């Protein structure tokens, strides 16, 4: 049974302080239409620019994940996105009157609570998952980061952290399905080491920091004078080190809360892939930069597979619109320079031609005879001739006209073509023909592989004009 997309029933707001900016911000979750995805809107900026929650918009990962688009930025998006993924919400528009999401208690639980309270509504469109097709690996050997996404008909996470710390040691966290997020992961707070906290405070980098929104791991010997100094900075009567090796500002909600929070961050960062995933994500020592790089790798694979699915296949045994004799009636080219054999489709803006590449082609006598490869320049010529049929089809008596190509740009050769291959050329007008000038995009395919592509510009002229 297909799963339907979901949005929230009504707008709901939360307010708090940004961890790094220290600015007070109100964030409002709004219902959004089908296939909208997650978007942020900076209502405090003229024009209220929108920032898509997309991995291609990531602008910084140094102290959380920031995204930027349309001249606007939103900082620390991962806890908010994790809440949406964890509740399996598909479409939300998030209004913000400041540059950074509120840190709240350092976890996702308060976002989860307000969204749960307002309720969810099912939409008409099906949720389109991306199923991890095979093991996808990512690693950073210098940081000992290892990540892999494996096929699974669910969304499962396993996370291991190891900070070479006597306090934390090695920790593991996992959920077997995304439905466990709310209970097992959402309330797990961010953490930092005491030496990191001191550095951040020294450089005024956590202006909204409060000992209520982070677990502080004490990874060094600390004297009472330093504890008194921290107490003063955070307006506390006193601070001490708890038996678990953390400051006594808070009690751990889980023995492995830091590892669970790293898992939370992974869920939020991988939301930036842009589609719900089905797979088992395993990671050792993940961080925002690695999460984002991994998300980009998955998105690139999705994009590649999508482009392949959009490639149309053609029946080469079907009767063509134009055979070779018909083509020679329109084009002045003759063997050995006629580079198309058939026209399979033809409209006012679109043409499809075919070229069978055989070993007895004249040019193979001199072009790598020991390892014959169809020359790239002749691939472009076949594309040009196919495009010529398209533009000549727009004039009466095409035999009285020539197509002169004025420009070829952004030509790319993506895969070699060898004897036995059949190239399918597809050319589409990119703008209406004006004053005899045509611009088009051409693609050459062998099977489902794109082997060549280019942007073309041509001019239609009468034969007498060329003779003059």
From TrEMBL:
Residues binding Zn(2+), per UniProt: 79, 261, 265
CDD domains on file: FabZ
Record's subcellular location: Cytoplasm
Any single GO BP term: lipid A biosynthetic process
Keywords for this protein: Cytoplasm, Hydrolase, Lipid A biosynthesis, Lipid biosynthesis, Lipid metabolism, Lyase, Metal-binding, Zinc
Record field: catalytic activity: a UDP-3-O-[(3R)-3-hydroxyacyl]-N-acetyl-alpha-D-glucosamine + H2O = a UDP-3-O-[(3R)-3-hydroxyacyl]-alpha-D-glucosamine + acetate
UniProt pathway: Glycolipid biosynthesis; lipid IV(A) biosynthesis; lipid IV(A) from (3R)-3-hydroxytetradecanoyl-[acyl-carrier-protein] and UDP-N-acetyl-alpha-D-glucosamine: step 2/6
Keyword NADP: no
Enzyme Commission number, as recorded: 3.5.1.108
A GO MF label: metal ion binding
Residue positions of the active site: 288
A single GO cellular-component term on record: cytoplasm
Matching SUPFAM superfamilies: Ribosomal protein S5 domain 2-like, Thioesterase/thiol ester dehydrase-isomerase
Cofactor(s), names only, from the UniProt record: Zn(2+)
Keyword Lipid biosynthesis: yes
Function: Catalyzes the hydrolysis of UDP-3-O-myristoyl-N-acetylglucosamine to form UDP-3-O-myristoylglucosamine and acetate, the committed step in lipid A biosynthesis. Involved in unsaturated fatty acids biosynthesis. Catalyzes the dehydration of short chain beta-hydroxyacyl-ACPs and long chain saturated and unsaturated beta-hydroxyacyl-ACPs.
Matches recorded under PANTHER family: UDP-3-O-ACYL-N-ACETYLGLUCOSAMINE DEACETYLASE 1, MITOCHONDRIAL-RELATED (PTHR33694:SF1)
Family affiliation: In the C-terminal section; belongs to the thioester dehydratase family.
Name under which the protein is recorded: UDP-3-O-acyl-N-acetylglucosamine deacetylase
Naturally occurring in which organism (per UniProt): Mucilaginibacter celer
Lineage: Bacteria, Pseudomonadati, Bacteroidota, Sphingobacteriia, Sphingobacteriales
């Amino acid at each position: 049974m297909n799963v339907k997309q979901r949005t929230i029933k009504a707008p709901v707001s939360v307010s708090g302080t940004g961890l790094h900016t220290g600015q007070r911000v109100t964030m409002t979750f709004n219902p959004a239409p089908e296939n909208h995805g997650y978007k942020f809107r900076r209502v405090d900026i003229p024009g209220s620019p929108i920032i898509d929650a997309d991995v291609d918009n990531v602008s910084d990962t140094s102290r959380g994940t920031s995204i930027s688009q349309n001249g606007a930025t939103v900082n620390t998006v991962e806890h908010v996105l994790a809440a949406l993924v964890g509740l399996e919400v598909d479409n939300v528009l998030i209004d913000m009157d400041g540059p950074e999401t509120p840190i709240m208690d350092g976890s996702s639980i308060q976002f989860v609570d307000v969204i749960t309270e307002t309720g969810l509504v099912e939409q008409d469109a099906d949720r389109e998952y991306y199923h991890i097709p095979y093991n996808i690996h990512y690693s950073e050997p210098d940081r000992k980061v290892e990540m892999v996404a494996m096929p699974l008909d669910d969304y499962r996470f396993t996370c291991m952290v190891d900070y070479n710390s006597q306090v934390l040691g090695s920790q593991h966290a996992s959920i077997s399905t995304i439905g466990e997020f709310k209970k097992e992961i959402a309330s797990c707070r961010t953490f930092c080491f005491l030496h990191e906290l001191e550095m951040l405070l020294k450089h005024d980098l956590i202006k909204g920091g409060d000992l209520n929104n982070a677990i502080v791991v004490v990874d060094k010997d600390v004297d009472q004078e330093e504890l008194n100094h921290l107490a003063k900075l955070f307006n506390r009567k006193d601070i001490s080190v708890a038996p678990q090796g953390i400051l006594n500002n808070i009690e751990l909600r889980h023995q492995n809360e830091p590892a669970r929070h790293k898992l939370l961050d992974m869920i939020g960062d991988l939301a930036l892939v842009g589609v719900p995933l089905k797979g088992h994500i395993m990671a050792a020592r993940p961080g925002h930069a690695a999460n984002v790089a991994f998300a980009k790798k998955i998105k690139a694979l999705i994009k590649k597979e999508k482009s392949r699915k959009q490639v149309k296949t053609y029946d080469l045994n079907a009767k063509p619109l134009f055979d070779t004799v018909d083509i020679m009636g329109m084009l002045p080219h003759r063997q050995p320079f006629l580079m198309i054999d058939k026209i399979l489709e033809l409209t006012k803006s679109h043409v499809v031609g075919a070229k069978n590449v055989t070993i007895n082609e004249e040019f193979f006598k001199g072009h790598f005879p020991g390892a014959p490869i169809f020359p790239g320049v002749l691939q472009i010529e076949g594309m040009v001739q196919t495009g010529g049929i398209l533009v000549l089809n727009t004039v009466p008596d095409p035999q009285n006209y020539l197509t002169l190509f004025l420009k070829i740009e952004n030509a790319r050769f993506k895969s070699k073509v060898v004897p036995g291959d059949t190239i399918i050329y597809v050319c589409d007008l990119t703008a209406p023909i004006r004053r005899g000038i045509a611009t088009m995009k051409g693609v050459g395919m062998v099977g489902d592989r794109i082997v060549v592509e280019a942007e073309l510009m041509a001019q239609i002229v009468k034969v007498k004009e060329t003779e003059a």
